[in-house]
Amino acid sequence: MTSLTPLYQLAAEQKSADVTDLSARISWVIGLVVFIAFVYWLMRQGWKWRGSLQSDLPELPATPDGYASQPPLLTMTGRYHASTTAGQWLDRIVAHGLGTRSRVELTLTEQGLDVVRPGAADFFVPAAQLRDARLDKGIAGKVLPEGGLLIITWALGDRLIDSGFRSDHSAEHPAWVDAIHHLTDSTTEGIAR
User: Fold this and answer.
1) Which of 70, 121, 134, 183 could cysteine-pair with 97, CB 3.0–4.6 Å?
2) Which mean pLDDT values do the consecutive 10-residue runs of the chain (193 residues) have?
3) b/e string for 12-31 if b means 16 or more Cβ within 10 A?
4) How far is 3 from 133, CA to CA, in rounded Å?
5) How far apart are the C-alpha atoms of 44 and 48, rounded to whole Å?
């Protein structure tokens, strides 16, 4: 017959390994923080580089005096998502603050489109510079269901720009497309005369 060693003696003989090595854990945390800071710095440098490439864009037009006296054709509150080179939905424009997402208040009159962005640069698009409007599903890092974005195409200097907006009430989008089409048609007729 074999002798059985009591269980408490077996448990007392085994020594478990250290569960936490504090210096190794601190080293990993510091390394991870440095890596995240480096990636953030690279992204910031890329944003600045993109802005310097687009520095040839003229300044954004300011809202003209007396604009508030014009009766608005349409108004809208919602979100401004981005501006891109027209037809290239991933080529974000960051110059002059056009790459900054923000809340937005849009007002369309016969004079043009007033874009008021709390916390970001406001701008004005004269009616003669409005080119098109359409419903789409994506622009520079924002993808929504089909027709979820109102894309307004306008000219800034010699470049065409697509700006993406989403109304708080997306049922308003088709009315904006129609109104901008009507405004651009009447502007081109006035220029043709």
Assistant:
1) 121
2) 61 62 88 96 86 79 82 92 87 85 93 91 91 89 83 91 91 92 74 46
3) eeeeeeeeeeeeeeeeeeee
4) 90
5) 6
For 121, residues 6+ apart whose C-beta sits below 8 A from its C-beta are: 60, 96, 97, 98, 100
For residue 99, give Cα distances in angstroms to 50, 58, 103, 139, 182: 10, 15, 13, 11, 28
Alpha carbons 133 and 31: distance in angstroms, whole number = 48
- Cβ(193)–Cβ(88) below 8 Å: no
CB 95 within 8 A of CB 55: yes
Tokens of 104: 């937005």
Give Cα separations from 185 to 37, 128, 180 (angstroms). Answer: 50, 10, 8
CB 127 within 8 A of CB 112: yes
191, burial (CB in 10 Å: exposed 0-12, middle 13-18, buried 19+): exposed
Question: Which residues contact residue 54 at a Cβ distance below 8 angstroms, ignoring those fewer than 6 apart?
Answer: 93, 94, 95
CB-CB contact of 131 with 153 (8 Å) = yes
